[in-house]
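Record dITP/XTP pyrophosphatase, 205 aa.
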Amino acid sequence: MNEIIIATKNRGKAKEYNQLFNEYGITVKSLLDLSEEIPDVEETGDTFKENARLKAEQISRLLEIPVLADDSGLVIDALDGRPGVYSARYAGEPTDDKKNYEKVLNELTEVPSQSRTARFVCVLALAIPQGETVFKEGFCEGIIAESPVGGNGFGYDPIFIPEGFEKTMAQLEDEEKNKISHRYHALMKMKTWLNVKLGKGESNE
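=>
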C-alpha cells in the first residue's frame, strides 16, 4: 500500500490523515488532488458504518487503489440517537451548522442537564482492492449544553461539553480538541491496525 485516497474534499481533514500515514511512507491524496472529478457517493446507509463503507468501497472500485472514508455525527440519548447519520443536514438542506444545533437545543428544551448525555461518533472505513474493508470506530462522550458557547470548531461543537470538561468543544484550542475527538480515537485504532499489518507492532485490541 504505497498510496491512499482520503474520500474528502476537506483540506483540514486530509491534513490529519496525511500526518497519520506519512510515517508509513504512504502517499496521501484527497479528492481535491485528483485530476478527474469523482461523483458524490449517496449516503443511503442507516448507520455510520454503512455510509463509511459506501464511500470507501465505491471510490476504491472506481480508482482501483485503497480509499479511506469516514462518517461521523452526534448521537443524543434523550433524542433516541438523533441526529445520528443525519447530523450534517438535521435542519434540512442546504446544510447549516447553526440551524442544526438550534434545532437540537429546541428539542431538548424540557430535558434536564443530567439527561442530556451524548457522544460524537466516527467510523473509519479503509477499502483495499481485492481485500476486506477494515473498520475502526471512535467516540467522544459528553453532554449537550443549555446554549451555544465558543467560536472554534464547527458543526455541533458550540453545544457539546466533552466529558471531564466544563466548557464546550468550541471553546477548546485545536490541539486540545484533537487529543480527545472521536476522529482521533478512531485514527489511533487505525494506526494500531497499520502497525500490525505493516509489521511495526502488536495489536492491543
